[in-house]
Specification:
two-stranded antiparallel ribbon, two-stranded antiparallel sheet, 3 helices, globular
């Protein structure tokens, strides 16, 4: 998962920071979103998704394509070896 936030469109509502303070903060200057990490650990992914959904201006986007590609090429542990 990679997070991208558009600081220019952020209204500073702070919902992201309330839902996922390990990942989001707010600027002391104007209250806009500050990313503490662009690639949060897996145990925070669902929390980040909830925070993104709560953004009233929808200025945060998630890019999960790399994970999906990894899942497509992963071999289940019980699959026979080639």
């Amino acid at each position: 998962m990679r997070i991208v936030a558009d600081h220019d469109l952020c209204l500073g509502a702070g919902q992201c920071a309330l839902f996922a303070p390990e990942v989001f903060d707010q600027s002391d200057e104007d209250g806009t979103v500050v990313l503490l990490t662009e690639s949060p650990p897996g145990d925070l992914h669902e929390t980040v998704r909830q925070a993104v959904r709560m953004c009233p201006n929808q200025v945060i986007s998630l890019h999960e394509a790399a994970e999906e590609a990894d899942a497509d090429t992963a071999t289940p542990a019980d699959a026979p070896s080639p």
